[in-house]
Specification:
The chain is built from eight helices and 15 strands. With 228 residues, the protein is α/β, with parallel strands linked by helices. Helix 6 packs across helix 8. This is Stage 0 sporulation protein A homolog.
């Protein structure tokens, strides 16, 4: 699971970004200031950094320089619209990409996936029973044909992918879906989402081989999976 280091001082933007990235299967560590970011670099390893250029106690350029010196991971700058000078400065310092605010969530996820693949740090492909999930881009294919999942269906699938060897209780799934939806998801709703997901990803939804039921406990991922 790719580890993202998010440096963003705007609380609302940071909260939304963390929800988005976690829903896409990333692990996220957040810092809201230059000093906090530099301190976090001392004891953590990341696969990619998202850095806001303007920070309350400095700027993202200093953080970028430290990251390139100590971890040499891809850096994507988050910039204000039309701030061309900052973009040029960031790219000259070794940043891999930039995206202007406000940005489209899917575009950001796609750019993160591209940067991870170019750096060789992407471990985003998961394959099971003809189902191919690229968690860096959010693309899901069944037998080579792209299928489209709702946000909650995709989040549900990610829970199984991220816990391939574990039995997942209904309570755990309810917590995950509630967090992703931002609203209460009850037991009946969970049953509906499991059914809908199986209809889309299983060869025979009546005899599921990907999402298996563990009677009296919950569910688990079927065998024959591979992470690449």
């Amino acid at each position: 699971m790719p580890r993202i280091f998010l440096i963003e001082d705007d609380k609302a933007i940071a909260k939304n970004l963390m929800l988005l990235l976690k829903s896409e299967g990333f692990t996220v560590t957040h810092a809201s200031a230059q000093g906090e970011a530099l301190a976090a670099l001392g004891g953590n390893k990341f696969d990619l950094a998202l850095i806001d250029i303007s920070l309350p106690d400095g700027n993202g350029f200093i953080v970028c320089s430290e990251i390139k010196e100590t971890q040499d991971i891809p850096v994507i700058f988050l910039t204000a619209s039309g701030d061309e000078a900052s973009v040029v400065t960031g790219l000259n310092m070794g940043a891999d990409d930039y995206i202007t605010k406000p940005f489209r969530p899917r575009e950001l996820v796609a750019r993160i996936g591209t940067a991870l693949r170019k750096s060789g740090r992407s471990n985003s492909d998961f394959i099971i029973q003809g189902l191919h999930v690229d968690t860096a881009t959010g693309v899901v294919k069944k037998n080579g044909i792209e299928i489209f999942l709702s946000a909650l269906e995709y989040r549900l699938l990610l829970v199984f992918i991220n816990n391939p060897k574990n039995i997942i209780t209904r309570g755990m799934l309810l917590d995950e879906l509630w967090d992703a939806a931002g609203e209460f998801v009850n037991d009946n709703t969970l049953t509906v989402y499991i059914k809908r997901l199986r209809m889309k990803i299983e060869n025979n939804p009546a005899d599921p081989q990907i999402i298996l039921t563990v009677r009296g406990t919950g569910y688990r991922l079927g065998g024959g999976y591979a992470a690449q």
